[in-house]
Specification:
By secondary structure, the chain is mostly helical. Helix content is 76%, strand content 0%.
């Protein structure tokens, strides 16, 4: 919007071979119209030639990419944290279950095994909710490299 406003819609339309109405529609996030990469490049070059103030569209795209990367990193860190917590709870539950099995008749050990198993269930439920939210946001759609 800033670049189109500074260059003026008519000048930008002539530069790109697009209609002024199309360019105006690209500034409305609720409309389908979008500038192509070539359009962005041409507008940034024209803006730079006229005003010499950097490349605002390129810089804005860079900020969007950095933000997306930070969001994905945060998701990956949260999934990793939850994986570690689930592994810890699971290990504690397995230990408690084995101790309860080895010392038969010890009610306290059985109660501890039950408590530890319930902790695993709570952690697993929370982790599943986290993963579902991640998927519902449309995350994880990129193809990961095959590690098998």
């Amino acid at each position: 919007m800033t670049v189109l406003g500074q260059l003026k819609i008519k000048e930008a339309a002539a530069l790109l071979g697009r209609s002024a109405a199309y360019l105006q529609a690209t500034t409305d996030p609720d409309k389908r119209e979008q500038l192509s990469v070539r359009d962005l490049e041409q507008l940034d070059l024209a803006h730079h030639a006229k005003f010499g103030l950097g490349f605002p569209l390129y810089e804005a795209l860079g900020r969007r990419l950095a933000t997306s990367r930070a969001e994905r990193f945060a998701d990956a860190a949260e999934i990793g944290r939850r994986g570690a917590a689930l592994a810890r709870e699971n290990g504690e539950a397995v230990t408690a279950l084995l101790e309860a099995a080895l010392v038969t008749g010890d009610r306290k050990r059985v109660e501890e095994a039950l408590r530890q198993t319930e902790d695993v269930h709570r952690e697993a439920t929370s982790t599943m909710a986290c993963l579902r939210a991640y998927l519902d946001r449309g995350a994880g759609t990129a193809t990961a490299p095959d590690t098998s």
